[in-house]
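Why does residue order matter? Because the sequence determines the fold. Keep that principle in mind as you read this record.
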Amino acid sequence: MSKGKRYNEEEKLNVKKVFAVIIAIIVLVMVGFMLKNILSKAKNTKPVEAVNYYALYQDAKWGIIGTNGETVINPMYQEIPIVIDKSKDVFLFTYDINEEDGTYKTKAVNKNNEQLFTNYNKVEALENYDSAENVWYEKNVLKVEKDGKWGLIDTNGKEISEIIYDNIKTLKGIQNSIIVEKEGKYGLLNCNGVKILDTNYSEILNFGDDYINGYITKNQDGKFGIVNVSGEQVLENNYEEIYNIYSDKYFVIGENGNQQLINKDKEKVLTENFDEIKQITSTGVIYVKDGKYGFMDFEGNIIIEASYDVLNEINTGIFLTQKDGKAGLIDKDKNEKVAFNFKNIYYNQKAGIYIAENEDLTQTLIDSNFQTKVVGILSELNTDKGYMKIKVDDSYKYYNFRFEEKNIKDIYVNNKIFVSKKDGKYGFIDTKENVVVDYIYEDATELNEYGFAAIKKDGLWGAIDKEGNIVIDPKYNLDENLKIDFIGKWHLGVDLNMNYYCDK
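Structure:
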């Protein structure tokens, strides 16, 4: 039987589909308008400029300024604020100081002078010092006290360690290393609050000059050991003494009052023919014998006999030493690489150059082939941007680390105006060498990172902005200042260690 034929009825309009298409069109139109509006706003919106903050001193009071010279917090405090990170508006103040009983109060405030972290009794910076006693602070962490115990928070107020310690301090000269004390024993945290060592030690010391190198520890029995940056044991606490002479392969230990060199397998490498080890290099050790310095390899073979008053490897295979009170450089074969004409010689590893100090307070810059390249006053050596600023014959010149002279415009690429000297006077020119500021000043500085330059006239200093407009007429005697710098009308204070700006 055949199938019957099915006939369709008259086609009907699909209302649901039509409605969906209309809705889709409306949505597309709305999205188009939204995108146009967003792009228009993005085009007309200026990028938000980052603001840095500095301590301000005025009329015997302390406040805060920003990078345009604007007053952020009016001077109202008796003690200098601590700005642990100039890019963040977290400022620490100490007040109600009682010098008789040693008590004081602290508080943290933001740029609106609103108090932060109010659930703690004290909020303090983690202060540290370098070898020249210059003060610096750990940037992203604070120590806080509550109910007589101390802990750590970050600058957003998040607790990153327990509030359980009797005391917290930094390991002098070493970043990212926080000593915590509990019941007379010491442990170690990093600046993220991560525990590296439990509070089991009577002393924790640095090993080398960087936290990456690890730490020397002393246990309750008075024995020394070494841990790495993760707290893993490198040498067990079995030694009478471990000396802070860094190497990643060898260690200087003390046994019965005598130094010995051992390797990572605790095997004795060098035990005799020296009184003291001063430095471990990649090929041997600098040692002292009968008051004189020499160099031997790891097999004990004398490479440079102990006959020098000074011997220090400042670059691989290159030794600083002295002759008749003058510094020079030799190699391990005692070949003279730099003549003995200088007060001292340093090596900058990042730049790959030797900096020799002359008796007249100038510097001689020497390349890696020991060739003298420039003699002058080294004003700035910027390893981040790869240039040197050197005063030569009363004029400043700029060089890269290959000693190729550079145009100032290649150095300060964001500046619109530049210092220029003519007929013994200073002014400013633009990128096309048009005079923007007339040649009327005795001295001047380039624009700083905030767009201000210092100008000197009749022995007094003032400031201009990035367009060459006067911000403040020369009025300050800054003869005692080691560095001349302005933010707006405020000049950098005499004490660089305090890093503050003022109007006196």
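The CA atoms of residues 115 and 374 lie 53 Å apart.
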